Predict the structure.
Amino acid sequence: MTRPLVPSVPLRRASRTLAAGCALTLGLPQAALAQGLAISETIVVQADEDLGPLAASETRHDVSAARIEELNATTLDELAASLPAVHIPVNSRGEAIAVLRGASERQLSTFFEGASLNIPWDNRLDLSLLPAGLVGHVQSAAGPLAPHYGVNALGAISFWARNRGGGSLAHGTGDLTRGSVAIRAGPAVLGGGYSARDGTALARGANLPHAQSAPDIRTNTDRRLGDVFAHLDTDLAGQTLRVTAFHVWGNKGIAPEGNVADGARHWRYDGIAHTVLTASLHSPLGPATTLDSTGWIQRFDQDIVAFADASYTARDSLQTDRDRTWGLRELLHHSFGAATFEGSFNLLQSTHRQRDADYVGNVLPAGRGPTARYTQRTWSLGGELEYAFGQALRAEIGVGYDVVEYRRTGAFPRIEDVGAWSGRAALLAGAGGGWTLRAALGRKTRSATMRELFGSGINRFLANEDLHPESIVSAELGAEWTDGEGSSFYLVPFLQDLDDTIDQRRVDGLRQRINLSGSQVKGLEAGGNWQANEAFALSANVTWTHTRRKDPPPGQINRIAERPALLATMTARYTAPAGIAGWLRARHIGRAWSADADGTLVPLNRATTFDLQASYILHGPGLPLQLFINLANLTDEVVTPQLGLPGPGRTLLVGFKVL
């Protein structure tokens, strides 16, 4: 039975198995992995030659703990960007949202220690608001996913908690200063961190005729972010208990759209507070039966202050958001003979409270109006059966039922709940010669979020409570190869066919979400690793997608906005025994389209960027100390994920860390 990407099993046990699978994939001894040798930027997680117990029916990629240490990232969006097929644009709300294989960002589930991190009000998560120091491991899953992933999960990125000590201090472009520390005390890890910046670098060639005065720093992109966390992994009466908690607080500005004179967002996020508590218990119920239980609570608060113009002095309006979410996941695993069964139950309930007010003379009035309350409950049941036709062939079939209940809808009339079946069929085969072949076909439904149905975006959107859920049929073929000497290769064609795709239109100067007749995403993932010797490694991956509407409007370009046709990455890495190490990475973003002020799609520029890092480890009487320097976007290339919202220009970061 394919284990879920969400870490329902204890990470201690899962990490040992994962290390073994990665070692087989890369042809490395487990001892090398245990010493933190990061050979490739990403690893395809596959079964070993006889399709062992962690055979994956979907495409999985991995960023190891050692690779995370190499990246020296500040926030989670920088970590997730290292995963193949993942694109992370920053939208007009200032949110760094992950997009997987060109699909909608609301089709992607984000997990932390098995808990769903997506804010259910919009089923998205701003990855730039969570510090990278919280995380020790990252994985993605794409393709037809099993029913146990839960409601609306057509793709997934899973983050696992940091489980080792260390510390770092760094300074960089935009007056970025950050520091973090983590201390291991027996089975627990305690830590925290803080970062502050005046803004992100602006590339010299960026064309921003509006809302941009400084030549080198992007308008209104300052950020302050602090965090504390605790993690416990221990045995308890024959069971394994895992508890993790974090609290993040801060504020940040949101870059305005610099291509329009009117209608741009002039916002700031104040009072950000994000708290998550997760607990998981692995319980053996017999020699062939286990139960994995995960429960969590999540609290997310933010105040959105809208300003009249890019001077950010005259306050216009305030939106206060308060989100409270709790969830539960149960996975029952039972083996009998050549068959394995897994039953799943997922439950998630979230309440969004929103209060809006207008400033009068830059002051809030005493009476701020009523609080609108929206409550959503989602749950799913699933069953999956896997059968081994010998050591080199396995078949899997799974069926589930997903339900979305809109229990409170603010001032809007109550709408009908959504219920739909999901399923997946898959086949895996060991073809010999280091090859593993697989095929999967699945069906899933993605329901409209409460924000898509009822949200106004501070007078930017028209509500549309008549949205229908998206129905998605997806398929993929996979071929993965390793030579047992450190080299590997994968090739994965994929297809997504959607009915009732949720998109946008313009109505009297406002935006409104609507259902299209449908859309289709077809594409190809490919990549691999080459280990030339102990010191030098080369890795590369490319994702090509072809995204089109099924019934495009006459006279309009047939595209979906902000979906690049090509993503490609190549990384060369050098590690010397003397403690010197470095890597050079090239990234390419292909053609994408974005809506102008009239809603017409216009092409965005292609872009290729280069990132460089060098480090040196000092060994002394104390702890090993690593000095590092990182240069991102060496050529100061203009990268434009969305019209009027360029990405960061050339950025320097220098610092040290205690290993």
